[in-house]
Every structure is written in C-alpha cells, then in structure tokens.
Amino acid sequence: MWDTLLRRRCHPDNSKKASARILLLRLFDHLKPEFQDQNRIFRERCAIEGEEARRDGDGEYIHSDVMTVLITRILNNASDINIPDVSDEITEYEIQFEINNTYPDPHIVDFIKKYPAEKTIFLSDFYMPATDLKRLLNHHGLTSIVNEGISSCDTGLNKRSGRLFSYVHSQYNITPEEHVHIGDNIHSDVMMPRALGLEGVHFMPSDEHEKRQKFEEIFHGKCNVIQHISEKIQESADPFLVDISMQKQSAYRLGLNSAPLLIGFVTYIAEQSLKDNIEKLYFFTREGEFYINIWKHLFPDNTLFGQRLPQTDVLEVSRLSTFCASLREVSTAEMMRVWNLYSTQSIFSLFKTLGIDPEISRNLCRKYNIIPENDIIYPWQDKRVQELFGDSEFVKIIQSSIDEKKYNLLSYLSQKGLTQETSRIGIVDIGWRGTIQDNISFLFPNTKIFGYYLGLQMFLNPQPENCQKSSFGPDANKSRSNIHLLDAVSLIEMLCNSPSGSVLGYHLDRHGRMISGRLVDQDENQVFYDFVSYFQEAVLFAARLWSDNIETHVISSDDLHDYACVIWKNLVQDTDADLLNAYHSLSHNEIFGMGQFINKSDVPSFREMISTLFSKTERYKFIQFIIQNQLISSFKKRRDIGWTYKIFLIGIIKMALQYKHFRNFLRIINAEK
Known about the structure:
Protein name: HAD family hydrolase
GO molecular function: hydrolase activity
Keywords: Hydrolase
Number of helices: 29
InterPro entries: HAD-like_sf, HAD_sf
Distance between the termini: 60 Å
C-alpha cells in the first residue's frame, strides 16, 4: 500500500515524531523529567515497538498497545491521566496526519490496469488496522480501485516473512499462481512472493522514488530541512520580486532570509503557551502587532499538532502607558523602577516618563532650586530631589495622575478580558527586560503572567512574584550564550515595528469605551513604509508556506533555534547596506526614560568627544550615545565619518560591550550563589 497506492510528503516516522510532540505539549506537567523532550519520547516509542515486536513470531504489534505502554511509562503518575482517552486521541491524530500528508501515486492507476484481475485488495505491513487504512484510501478516492485489504497488525502475519500471502490464499480460496502482487520493496513485494509462486511485480517510478529519497535525507540529517524549506520559499517568491524596485527587493529578500528567526520565535510562543496552560495570549504593541500576524499565518486554524492554542488578542500598551498606573506609592524608592534603567534623568524627563505635562513641575522645581530641564545624575541620591518627593503638593500631583491612569488602564484591560479574576495569561513582546509585564503584574497580583520574548537582557529590578519570563533567543539572566545578539536591539525593533504609533494612555470615546491614544511619528513611519513593510510582507509570505511544513516535518522551536541565532548574528554583525541606510534614517522613540526621540544618524563630533574629558555633562551625553548606539556594523560602513575617528568610536563601543558583558557575567555568578 505505502509507496505504491499512497505516497507520503515526508518520512514515514514523522507521524510518530508528531505524536511525541503532542504528548510533550499535552502532558508536559505530568511527564517524568527525563521525558520532557519530544525526541526522548520518540526514542522510547521505538524501543517499545521493538519490545512488542519480539513478542510475536512475525514481529508485528498494534498501535494502541504501544501507545498504552508509552503513555504509562512517560508519566510521573499514571493515575492522573485517562490513558485510554489519550491513546485514542493520539491514534486519531496519526490517522489525520497520514491523511494530510499523503497523496495517491500518480502512476499507480495506469500501472494496475496492466494487470487486470477479478479482485484487487491491498496488503500492508503496518501497525494500524485495515479499517484505518481504508479511511486513507477513501479520502484519496482510491476505494473504487481497492475497496478492501489486510493489515499485518490484524493478523500478526506480514509480507516480509511470506506468511501473509499464504493467509490471503486461504482467506480468498486462491492459489499462488492466481495471485499478482505489486509493490515497491524488493524483498517483501518481489522476491518473497516469487519464492512462494506468486507473480511479484516491482513498482518504483523514478520521479516519486527521488522524492522519497529526499525525505530520507532530510529525516536522517543529511539534508538541512530548514534550508530545504527556505529554498523552496525563495523559489516561490521569485515571480513577485520582478515587479518591485531594487531597494524593495532587498528588503523582501532580507525578510525571506530572516523568516526562520521569527517563525522560530512564534512557534516557541505557541509551544510555551500550551505547556503553561494559559487562558489567553496577549500580543503587546508595537512589535506584537507583527507577531500576531505571523501567528495567524502560521496557525490559521489556531492549532499546533492538533492541540487547540489559546485565543489571542492585541493589547495596546507601552512602558509609558502602564508605568505610572502601576506605581504603588509616590517615593524615590518606587521610582527606582525607572532610575535603575535610567540612572541620569531630568525632572522634565521623569514627568514625561510618567505621562504628565512636565510644565506642571516647573514651580515646584524652582522651590527646591532644580532646573527641570537639567539632567541629574543618580537623582535618588540628590537632596533636592529627596525634598521634592517629600513635598505634599508634588506627591498630590503624582498620586492624582496615578489614580486616573490606573482607572483608565484597568478599564481598558477589562474590556480586553483581563480582570482580577483572571487566573493565567501569556503575554508576547520583543523583549529586553519585560518592563511592561512587570507593570501589569503589579496591577494583577493574583494573576499568573507568563511572558514570552525574543530575547531578555539582565533584569535590573526585583521581579514580581506572579511574573514569569522566558525567551526564544538569548537570556542574559540565565546564560552568556549568544548574549552578544542583545548588543544592538534597536535594529531588530525597527524590523518588527508597526506604523500605528506608540501608546500614550487611554481615554473614553464617544461610545463610552476606553480606547488608547497613540503618538504617530511620520519620520519614524517613513522607514516602515520604505523598507520595513516589505521585510514584514516577506516574513508573512514565508509563514504561510512554513505553516504546513512545521507539522509535516515535525519542526520545533528547538530545531529552529541555532539557525535563528545565526540569522540574528548576520543581521547585526554583517548588516545589509540597504538595511543600514534604513536604520540610519530611523527616528527612535525614547520618550520613556529619556523624554525624546533619538536620531540614529547622529554622531558626536570629535570636539564634543574631547570635551568629555573635562565636562561631566558632555561625558554623560557621550555615555548615552554609546548606550544607544552599539551596532558596530553601522559605523564600519558609514562614509560621513573619518577613518581615524571611526576606528576610535568602534574601539570605545567594543570596550563598553566587553565591560557590559563582564558585569552581566558577575551578576549571573552572584545570582547562582
């Protein structure tokens, strides 16, 4: 039957690997630690199949028996799970997997006509009963040719030993000379039948056999499946590229090449959301607007390997729109949540960070001899700032804003289904430190909030108890592995951005609904429309094609991880020229913390750099420039900076990065003590 009547679009064992994936995702919390890995579950199944086969003379076994033993063996406590129900679910999934990933051999109908017979049946050495195999044939419209047959697991006899042929002769009351058998396997389908007096006919059309060999190479690692899929996607996209400009072609090709990074991330989100058993998954603006589109293209029926994924929604939030609302008191201690991130800040910038008109602070600042526009280094240590925070009028202004913003934010979140009664949710953002998740966690102390990120920088603030964070890419809190990828994150932010603007806060519309207010910067959006939109369009094009392949080839986020990190590395270390041009024209929103937009093309002059030796203010500005500009490749390819100064700047940035990495290393060591 297999590779004769029906062809697979993948390796035969992929259905078993897919089942292992389901067991991992469905039963994760109930699995023994050593089985919290799909490859380990797959290998255990193969071992059990061997054990079951040795019980029978012909080495046959039944799928349901294997599944019962496997599920029992991998569970911590078998009494916690209804094993027959899970076994039935896996069996049905494997049948559906075979239906979705098989097709009729294009040559077999004409080939069979060469051997006219009174009756045509199928014979299969397989672990599923004939009733299930008939479902496949019926789905593919082959029952008009072959409407009945025998599976080896029904009889305990197989073609390989020859005993199944004798069983057929007995059941149908025929002699070997009256039996023509057609198949692809030289031993089981040709030599063994001929030895028993049947006419054994070899069927192996070269075009279909080449496809099968390709799937063998992919399965056994001789061919990189990710590269194979990516090349097919590139070929599919070529016709579209003919009609667009060279710059847009560059952005589109970059998106196609970078797609596995973002496909891997979104696949990781889906896997983790199932393992964490969350009620709903929220994608944070702005990058989340892109990620949820990838999700919809990747999981059009909102399932992963037959498992229903959580419902999703976009949550219009930002650090700016959630920070003030999440403050628990007006004090310098509470403000450390922002000052740990921005250790130098003016009162004007602080008020902008809180979403309050900074002019309101002017008279109070004058009272304590503070110039509100001037940056203050370590403001929490400044006596004037301490006195300001002790001023009842100042506290009243801040507290009033906290109360208003908290009410508005909670009303908006309630409309989105997030209330104090919500038990477990997942959130998605590009990452770095997960500040927005922290803010929301403080507002919902009884809700377990799982954060899924592309990457995570070292946390600088104590983490809320109800807050759990993980990343697909590097996590500087757990390991030094690939943390260099976090050195120039603004480039990745640009590629994942949306044109809808940053959320400032919330207000009632004329229908009485709480809606977000957004700041849309046209200069920032110009980069999106000229370059980023084509990059994202290509990623979404790739996601549609990846959708089928993820399940067919049983690809997990772990499979994509290393490949994705190479893509990320190439983006930031060997940056494409057109991408750099787009990056240099970027106006980056840093209102939270710094109170302004940052132009990525700005570079301090040599004179300004020299002045850092004598001026504390200029030194601070230069340090901020280094913090904001760690994409070394962007300096290497700039032509508006002299070589001497360029080499000097790159050297300074490299030293700063080494210092940062060393500090992160010490923090990891201290955290482990």
